[in-house]
Design goal:
It contains 12 helices and no strands. It has helices spanning about 5-20, 35-40, 50-60, 65-70, 70-75, 80-85, 90-105, 115-130, 135-145, 145-150, 155-160, 175-190. The longest helix has 17 residues, at about 5-20. The chain has 2 domains: about 5-105, Fumarate Reductase Iron-sulfur Protein, Chain B, domain 2, CATH 1.10.1060; about 115-190, no CATH class. About 65% of the residues lie in helices and about 0% in strands. The radius of gyration is 19 Å and the shape is globular. Bound molecules: iron/sulfur cluster (2 copies).
């Protein structure tokens, strides 16, 4: 369901607060729309909006448009836009903030692969203290493309045979300590 104007305004405000908390984040206001970021970005061709357009949309308060697009989820975190930006804007970190906000608030099209994978990965780390590959693959295909998952079974069996995948997952030692740390980070995030 499309967001109301008030929801978009509140979301934009919350997002900008996070961006301003990033080192050099306030430089987002110094973008000169030169397009160097988009020209440098290896994923720009596949993105619905390139990095330059993202900055323009953010400044125009059109955050909802970002989350309706595939752009955020195609960023490969290569940092080319950041190192080449003449205004020193940490654009890769801005993308990270967009991803965090999108995952936290469920703002992505149903089945968006990267967002689904991020959620399953974080859940595994919270449960076991580590990634659980078999679980990740199983849940990922169930939530995105079950038919494709069936097609991956032969490959999975080969990997199992070669012991590159295994059933089950052991919790790490000291999982309680890790959970406390994660809870503290989440609490700090919530207060930002
Ligand atoms: S390279 Fe920097 S200044 Fe140029 S459009 Fe991109 S973010 Fe703006
Ligand atoms: S960090 Fe992301 S947005 Fe920036 S150039 Fe790399 S892929 Fe593109």
């Amino acid at each position: 369901m499309p967001m109301s104007a008030t929801e978009v305004r509140d979301l934009s405000k919350e997002f900008l607060e996070h961006v301003y908390a990033i080192p050099e984040g306030e430089k987002i206001n110094q973008c000169i729309q030169c397009g160097t970021c988009s020209a440098s970005c290896p994923s720009a061709e596949a993105m619905e909006y390139g990095p330059r357009e993202i900055i323009a949309a953010l400044r125009a308060g059109m955050l909802d448009r970002m989350f309706e697009s595939n752009t955020v989820w195609l960023c490969a975190s290569c940092y080319l836009c950041t190192v080449r930006c003449p205004a020193g804007i940490p654009f890769t970190d801005v993308m990270y903030e967009l991803k965090r906000l999108g995952v936290k608030k469920g703002l992505y099209a149903k089945g968006t692969p990267n967002a689904v994978m991020a959620r399953i990965f974080v859940d595994s780390v919270q449960r076991y203290g580590r990634n659980a590959e078999m679980r990740l693959i199983r849940l990922f295909f169930m939530k995105t493309n079950p038919l494709k998952g069936v097609g991956m079974v032969p490959l999975g069996l080969k990997l199992l045979k070669k012991k590159r995948l295994k059933f089950g997952v052991k919790k790490i030692k000291g999982i309680e300590g890790l959970r406390k740390m994660l809870a503290a980070v989440e609490e700090e995030e919530a207060q930002r």
